């Protein structure tokens, strides 16, 4: 049975499609994107104050860089992103049919960047990619419908990946071999906690699910907004869970950013080292 934590609503921010919350420890701020509004938000959890930069193109994911900057994902491009003015400069364009676009991304704890694409024609032509620091890349998994949440285990040996169209979360081991899988209704964002637990946002259900490292069901949390998009950890000791949501009719807190202490800690986000 799902339980309801003591959620706090962070300020007055209401996103059209909030996504990819990433904690920045030096500034003690949460960064996230509103994909449909083309905005990059910086949020102070202590006060709820939020500031935004408007991007010239829709950005679907944020990844911190080892040099202190940021990478963004937009269209089929991965590039540098300035959180001050929203300027995006492509570094790498991944190939694919014009109907395909990249979506969620993360720097794994093995140092590689993982990013997947969506095939909105539902022809399963999308893919999950691994991008190395020199920007060489290869496909880890093909025949993907809608690549969404992606994260790695604390030791970097397992890669967890959500396919929203297939209603499946899969764990990949060495050489990209699937080792575990679980059915989840409309899985969206993913975050792995310090104990290896896999948190999955379930779009449309108002629920976050936690699974053990081998993807056995563990617990569920109710979220006061139906369109749960993503989840991450931050704050002191990485004990605050942050949840992004999207706008929906009739839900007062839809589009809000929520936070709670759920009894487990997360991990600092890994930072991608671009070698060029």
Describe the structure in your own words.
This protein is mainly beta and 276 residues long. The chain has one domain (8-260): TolB, C-terminal domain (Neuraminidase, 6 Propeller). The protein contains no helices and 24 strands. The strands form 6 sheets. It has a 4-stranded antiparallel β-sheet with strand order 1-24-23-22, with no helix packed on it. A hairpin with a 6-residue loop joins β11 and β12. The chain is globular and about 45 Å long. The model has no long low-confidence stretch (mean pLDDT 96).
Q: Would you tell me which CATH topology applies?
A: Neuraminidase
Average of per-residue pLDDT values? 96
Helix amount = under 10%
CATH H-level homologous superfamily name? TolB, C-terminal domain
- Backbone CA Rg: 17 Å
Q: What can be said about the biggest beta sheet?
A: 4 strands, antiparallel
Structural class: mainly beta
The tally of beta strands, per DSSP, is 24
Note poorly predicted spans. Answer: none
Q: What is the highest CATH level, the class?
A: Mainly Beta
Report how far the terminal alpha carbons are from each other: 49 Å
Q: Proportion of β residues?
A: over 45%
In short:
Helix content is 0%, strand content 49%. The protein is mainly β.
Descriptive key words:
single chain; about 280 residues; mainly beta; Neuraminidase; 4-stranded antiparallel sheet; globular
